[in-house]
Amino acid sequence: MTVASARVRPFAPDEWAALRDIRLSALQDSPGAFYSTYEDTRDRPEASWRAWPSQGVALGVWLDGVPVGMVGIATEAEDPRSADLFAMWVAPTARGSGAADLLVQAAVDWAQQRGCTSVSLEVASGNERAERVYARHGFVPSGEPTMVKCGLAMRRDLS
Length: 159
Known about the structure:
By secondary structure, this protein is an alpha+beta fold.
């Protein structure tokens, strides 16, 4: 895969099965990287996938019509000027290709287009590769508590 041939776009509601499949692949490949588990996620109904995430969008990076990575971005319910980046994952076959950079940039662009002043995220303990990707995009450790045990909270100010 090359960055030039990849395309980032939102998953359409009718692509709920593709979104489900890539999310489940992420949870199987990297179970310690996410707050959700494969077991808790696999039986979600179609309506739930069509509406997820409720206050944002699930973006996919597509190669030859097949999603090879995803990221979620949503505004925070208590502060719509802040956004959360979550569920970031790239298939092993696409790692190192620039797909992660495309996804992070698309998520930041989404937040900026909605007038958000910051984007926050969490990185699982020991995931230095993800930390480096986010740092390349201006994210810095924020010191905030995390939902993932021993995780690292990072934030990028957009103002």
